[in-house]
Design goal:
By secondary structure, the protein is mostly helical. About 65% of the residues lie in helices and about 10% in strands. The protein has 26 helices and ten strands. The protein has helices spanning about 30-50, 55-70, 75-85, 95-110, 115-135, 135-150, 150-165, 170-190, 190-210, 215-225, 230-245, 250-270, 275-290, 295-300, 315-325, 330-340, 350-365, 370-380, 400-410, 415-430, 435-450, 455-475, 520-530, 540-545, 550-570, 575-580, and strands at about 10-15, 20-30, 385-390, 395-400, 500, 505-510, 515-520, 535-540, 585, 590. Helix 3 runs antiparallel to helix 4 (about 95-110) and helix 7 (about 150-165) packs antiparallel against helix 8. The chain starts with 9 loop residues before the first strand and ends with a strand.
Length: about 600
């Protein structure tokens, strides 16, 4: 049966039935107009006042559907702009991104492109396209028009969108100017979200520039959020708290805060809630010497459809984790996918410096001097910047460190020493203590390799300083890996065992002995303990399962380790006996060599 056309002053409106199907319901036009107005107002309130991105998307989606049925062009345009969100590229999947673009293009065809709404739609379309291409010319052109038009609302939105498209390391000064202009524009728009976004961008820029007064910017932003919370901006601030805890060397605290940060992002409906906490865990495990544990997770993340199109950091982290685990094929393949025809083709996004740090570290582990030299040339102009990820959510210390490792891998020992000295100084200024320890260790390695008259004393001095700082912070003193993974046994007796992946097996080395053991859960636990000598690690952390059941974790880990020790002893009685004497299990587990 066909439905008759609606009477004058009434519309057919799409409604979702309890069964999940969409039906068309006959409703008076005044009732629909009231619902449309309420949906738009709810979307604006959720996005601008509360920072609830999930609620704003629901409201704007309903408003767009109602406005489309009613033929209300202005309401359609406002809803489409609202659906785009606070950030650029909130819609990560191809389907979501294309749908948003189609809606924006449709409403633009119905608007005067020079009108206030027309400018807002054009700024969003230009920003979304520029962001994907790693460009900014189109959005800056619309920003110039918005400045000339004098309308505060499209100006504020164009400023924030343009800032997001310029988050790479090349545009620090321009971003600072845009953030200041956005704060100014906020007093004309009267929208609190514009002020918060301006203050947030100012804070992000300060940390990305290594500004020693960045904490003051963060403090002002905190004060605003204390007066009245904003979920989306508060999520970013909570992510910065994790980064600061990592810098302070409080890695256990940072891991706990990362969980809280993810919950904060989920409450805000932010698409990055899981990605950011994952990136933070990568950083924590990096400095704990436990990155190889995340190899399966990183493999999944690197191939996820939800990953930002301009974020290559997961692939770089996968390369490092694979190299550390002895999986050279995965490491080499990951680096090749990043490199393409030329490393310079990587998008200069907010994660570029972190990505390049991973490229350099993986190149070092694979002894790829050519790739290290290529990365060095690209990183050299940014030597004075910290390697900050995304919106200040994580930090790997000074870019001088990556340059030093690249030079070390390429055999440029004098340059490596100069960069690593600078890295120690810069990391001290950043108060990034795990990075200080890491740079001192690499500096000691470079001095030892150069072998000049004063190098032996310099290497000893840096090793001693790194050991002291690591002990004070409770950080593991990571052993320096040989140039080629898998070559664990040296010609001289080693008092500490070493363990690394060798294909699908584990290679254990101690004294002048070396043996291959089949993979197992217990061997993975042993590898973690051996990589962190004299450090107590909770059994619950080793299982990565229910932390509130320590007794269950103690039993499971103890059994797995004992089975692994039995296999080691069968393969090599001397190594097995050494580990039986030095590996301790319980609620906390450890490896204590003499």
């Amino acid at each position: 049966m066909t439905c008759p056309p609606p009477a004058y002053g009434a519309w057919f409106v799409p409604m979702l039935s309890p069964g999940g199907t969409t039906t068309r319901v006959y409703r008076p036009s005044s009732e629909v107009a009231d619902e449309l107005r309420a949906a738009l107002e709810a979307g604006v309130s959720a996005q601008d006042a509360a920072g609830d991105l999930a609620a704003s998307r629901r409201s704007f989606e309903r408003a767009y559907q109602l406005a489309e049925q009613a033929g209300q062009v202005q309401a359609m345009a406002g809803a489409a702009v609202g659906l785009a969100g606070l950030w650029v590229r909130e819609h990560r999947t191809v389907t979501g991104a294309v749908r948003l673009e189609a809606r924006l293009q449709h409403v633009l065809s119905l608007l005067d492109p020079r009108s206030s709404l027309g400018l807002r739609v054009r700024a969003r379309l230009a920003g979304e396209a520029d962001y994907v291409r790693g460009e900014h010319a189109a959005v800056l052109a619309v920003l110039s028009e918005a400045r000339a038009a004098g309308d505060a609302v499209p100006l504020a939105e164009a400023l924030s969108i343009a800032h997001h498209c310029l988050l790479g390391p090349d545009h620090v000064r321009l971003r600072q100017e845009l953030a200041t202009d956005l704060i100014k524009a906020s007093f004309r728009t009267g929208r609190r979200s514009d002020l918060l976004m301006g203050l947030l961008w100012q804070t992000v820029d300060a940390y990305c520039a290594g500004d020693p007064h960045a904490g003051r910017c963060l403090g002002e932003l905190r004060d605003q959020l204390t007066c009245e919370p904003h979920l989306a901006v508060g999520f970013v601030v909570s992510a910065m708290d994790v980064m600061l805890a990592i810098r302070a060397g409080q890695l256990a605290v940072a891991e706990s805060l990362a969980g809280s940060c993810a919950a904060s992002g989920a409450a805000a409906g932010d698409v990055d809630c899981d990605w950011w906490s994952g990136a933070q865990l990568v950083t924590i495990r990096w400095y704990q010497g436990r990155l190889a544990e995340l190899l399966p997770t990183l493999h999944d993340r690197a191939h996820s459809a939800e990953l930002s199109v301009v974020d290559d950091s997961s692939v770089a982290a996968l390369a490092v984790a694979a190299a550390l685990a002895g999986d050279r094929r995965t490491a080499a393949s990951s680096l090749a996918s990043l490199r393409g025809q030329d490393l310079s083709g990587l998008s200069r996004s907010s994660s570029w410096l972190v990505t390049m740090n991973g490229v350099v570290e993986a190149a070092h582990l694979l002894a790829d001097a050519e790739l290290a030299a290529e990365a060095y040339r690209l990183l050299r102009p940014y030597a004075g910047l910290p390697m900050i990820g995304s919106l200040g959510i994580t930090c790997f210390g000074s870019t001088h460190h990556a340059l030093g490792v690249a030079a070390l891998t390429a055999g440029e020992l004098d340059g490596a020493i100069d960069h690593l000295r600078a890295a120690v100084r810069h990391n001290l200024a950043l108060a990034h203590w795990p990075a200080v320890v890491a740079s001192r260790q690499r500096l000691a390695q470079a001095h030892a390799l150069r072998g000049g008259p004063a190098d032996a004393d310099a290497a000893r001095r840096e090793r001693d300083a790194a050991r002291t700082e690591a002990t004070q912070l409770g950080l593991p003193l990571l052993g320096l890996l040989p140039p080629v993974p898998g070559q664990l046994a040296e010609h001289h007796p080693q008092p500490v065992a070493q363990c690394a992946r060798a294909g699908r097996k584990w290679q254990l080395a101690w004294q002048n002995r070396s043996v291959l053991v089949e993979d197992s859960v217990g061997m993975l636990h042993l590898a973690v303990l051996i990589a962190n000598p004299r450090q107590e690690i909770r059994a619950a952390d080793l299982t990565a399962g229910l932390p509130d059941q320590p007794e269950r974790a103690r039993v499971a880990v103890g059994k797995a380790i004992r089975r692994a020790l039995g296999r080691v002893t069968e393969a090599d009685a001397a190594i097995g006996e050494h580990l039986r004497q030095t590996v301790h299990t319980g609620v906390r587990c450890s490896y204590w060599p003499s």
